[in-house]
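Figure-free illustration: sequence to structure, shown twice.
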Amino acid sequence: MSEVKLTQLSHGGGCGCKIAPSMLQQILADAGSKMPYPDLLVGTENSDDAAVYRLNDDQAIIATTDFFMPIVDDPFDFGRIAATNALSDVYAMGGTPIMALAIVGMPINKLPVETIRSILQGGESVCKRANIPLAGGHSIDSQEPIYGLVALGIVHPERLKRNSEARDGDALILGKGLGVGILAAALKKGALSDEGYAELVEVTTRLNSVGTKISEIPGVHAMTDVTGFGLLGHLLEMCKGSGLAAEIRFDQVPVLSSALPLARAGYGPGAIERNMASYGKDVDFSSHLEAWQQRLLADAQTSGGLLVSVSPEHAEEVLDCFRKSGFQEASAIGSMKSGLPKVTVG
């Protein structure tokens, strides 16, 4: 571990650093293209995971940027988590990464060179696993440590998966367990066990490369990844983009085993309250759900799981694809329904 605790140098960590959904909507209210770009297949219109630009009939390029402040103290692990998280957006669009650039902001008067180098090496190790070059980047001297990637990928336009094309009756499948933000909050307070830390690092460094395979399964209509806005926030984006409602069952939602007791004890990042304040009005909770259960569904995930909307007859095929790719916890959690965009939790 680094002698300097990385998490003590930043006011937040991981995707919990994201600006709250309601504030982001205000900031981006007037954003968007001022003229038509017919080859821009995905832009800012539906809060999707990445931008996509068609190059020709067979190829479209995916471009995304993701970076944040430390979620763990080990510099190598921080670099791995940040890089895995950034590449996830390419996989969530159904694409294959082809190259990455590093985004580096470090307080050079507070961190040893060896620590900074280890963060970058962590990111490089993930790019090597994804079989892509880390081909450059940009660095600045900043007050808080920041690391992430610009990730570029490629996808066939017909296999592109937006978050806005779910259909009435689709099954919803989540690939990873929730609770990353809760584990990270416990770590920062010195309350996370060695087993909990190991689970935190394992789930956040597991590449969502299965998304490329899932995009080829018939009946997969929409896909996104669950990150800083929590499961509820990213599902609501799918609902709004698709013009549908969603119903999920709490007892079907996978949860990281180490996060359960910590969630019951009230641990969690401040992003949970920001998330709930932003979109709580669009969520109907069953009366039997306790407060900790509601908060868990809004927990800010870092490098979270893929959320897939698929026709019921192909749901088992998606689950099988997840499990054969190392996502044993993948679970069908609910379905899309006709109605005004909202989420009902039973």
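We now fold a second protein in the same way, so the two outputs can be compared directly.
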Amino acid sequence: MKAEIYYFSGTGNSLQIAKEIATKLPAKLTSIPDVCKSEKIKSDASVIGIVFPVYYGNLPNIIREFSKKLDLIEGKYIFVVANFGGGAGVSIREISKIIISKNGKISAKFAIQMPQNSWLKTWENREKLFEKCKLKIEKICKSVSSLKKVRIHSNIIFDLLQITIQPLFDHLVKSHFIKITKESKQVPLQKLIYLTDRSFIVKENCDGCGLCSKVCPTNNIKMENSTPTWLHRCENCLACYNFCPKKSIKVGIMQNDFYYLNPAIKLSDFIKKKSNNSAILGDHLN
């Protein structure tokens, strides 16, 4: 069985999951931002895994883009792993639609709860979540190794509830993004997400180190006169905000002064992944 794991990660949760799955299967590990530059994305693997975070109860824009570019996937065993802080929402349903439109099929669907990275949950037990994550990864690898067709719910009742309320949630998110981007109501939510970096502010204590530009997985930050400038293709991954050593970035899309980075991920690995088109990373990372 030849397997390849594609992943997107901003603060480390999805990368941790992808790396552990890739190690146990084993599988080749590939960064989605690196391959998304191509017009078509092809893999010679018979088993394809896609690991991604859930944003606003749905898919990150880059996962939509990546899924639409997948080519020659008919007949392949495809599995997805959605990592979420609140719930998987409609993310798995949405990526399934895209894969079907590409003549493929998702054989196994998984969801893993990880620590929240955008606002403080005082009741959250991170250690317990990491322990449960490892157990679920074991189950995922067993299912994938035997090519089982399966879906593992985090909480089926909660999942169904999320699907029902997603239109309302989309409306609330869009209203907030219209406010911070100063765009019209006619602009679709997916485009508004790209433009949310208009709300990012650089504080006076910024020393121009450029680390924010180096860790941005989609190269959305350009340094101008030792000051970061965002290019309005923001994925909302929060890498720049969380990795800044001086805490010099203020954003309008999350709870400010709350920071999170997956403890299993190293900065050096996060930067390293950007320098390789498709590489198995070091021992730790985002």
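Summary for the second example: The mean pLDDT is 92.
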